[in-house]
Specification:
4-stranded antiparallel sheet; 12 helices; 22% strand
């Protein structure tokens, strides 16, 4: 298959891998485009085959925060959603408006935005289980389909978010172009996605959770991502990291220990979930954030007029 960004057919193989998270049979080849640096699975799995890799216990399909039985975990999850919501409000400089969350899963982020202000919240989620949960448990307006199939009107949203979603879509360029179409001029796009330049790859290799074959169909370095955004009509405001860092580290370690030392798995994870250890991790990940080497990138971008992207203003 050709590269989704530069349309070249010139790749080098990075590795062959399996579904380490859910251990569903299948082998996948991860390649890097020699022309632009985009990383992707080749050949791309068929859409209908991918559905089995998104079971109901897939991590993003989490229950409503209010239904979380553990008080500390409930507080931790609520704080995580609050951080996302406040970051969106701060970078968009808006206290209200119409927001679309693409790949909204079970709807916890949209529920958080709804609680923080006068926001009209809309979600898109193709997984039937997750979309039904968001509609029935949280009462959210969620379209159970892909973004393009929702057929939103042009310029109909002030903010569009894709939390850990762009790496899952088979055609990232088409997805970003559709986001640009439904987002008003000067509207804000928010992305979070794995960073294949993180130092954690040196530690975990292909057990790093960010590879996540075959769900992660594409992976983007910062340079590649900036090019995608520019070519689809966006100007980058900020690239930072503030979500999921320690959780990704724990998941990577879990995948590594599960394969190498399965009998030590519970002990190792219980130690690393201990609060003093997490505080030490906070220091390490704060340094990673400053040098932009955390496992998760958060990107804020502004939709610009076509002549601005062509450099004619």
């Amino acid at each position: 298959m050709t590269c989704n960004l530069c349309q070249a057919n010139d790749t080098e193989i990075l590795c062959e891998g399996v579904d380490r998270l859910h251990e569903i049979p299948g082998t996948y080849k991860l390649v890097r485009c020699r022309q632009c640096g985009l990383i992707y699975i080749d050949p791309m799995p068929a859409y209908e085959d991918l559905a089995q890799h998104y079971p109901e216990n897939y991590i993003p399909y989490s229950k409503a925060i209010d239904d979380e039985p553990c008080l500390l975990k409930r507080w931790d999850r609520r704080y995580g959603v609050y951080k996302r919501c406040r970051a969106v409000i701060r970078n968009s400089d808006q206290q209200s408006g119409r927001i679309l969350d693409v790949g909204c899963a079970t709807g916890n982020f949209l529920d958080g935005m709804r609680r923080l202000g006068d926001w009209q919240t809309v979600g898109v989620e193709p997984n039937p289980y997750a979309s039904n949960y968001a509609q029935e448990r949280l009462g959210l307006d969620v379209f159970a389909c892909e973004l393009k199939e929702a057929s939103f009107e042009k310029d109909s949203f002030d903010i569009v978010t894709l939390w850990d979603v762009l790496e899952h879509v088979p055609d990232p360029m088409a997805t970003l172009q559709e986001v640009a179409r439904v987002l008003r001029t000067d509207g804000v796009l928010v992305l979070s996605l794995p960073n294949p330049e993180t130092w954690e790859i040196s530690l975990f290799g292909f057990h790093w959770a960010g590879w996540d074959m075959p769900r992660h169909l594409h992976l983007f370095t910062q340079d590649v991502l900036v090019r995608y955004l520019k070519e689809s009509g966006f100007e980058v405001i900020e690239i930072t990291s503030f979500t999921g860092k320690y959780h990704v580290f724990l998941l990577s370690l879990d995948l590594w220990v599960r394969e190498r030392f399965p009998y030590w798995r519970k002990l190792v994870l219980s130690i690393l979930r201990f609060w003093p250890i997490r505080l030490l991790g906070l220091i390490i990940f704060s340094i990673s954030d400053r040098i932009k080497l955390s496992s998760i990138m958060a990107v804020f971008a502004r939709r610009v007029e076509e002549d601005e992207t062509n450099g004619n203003t």
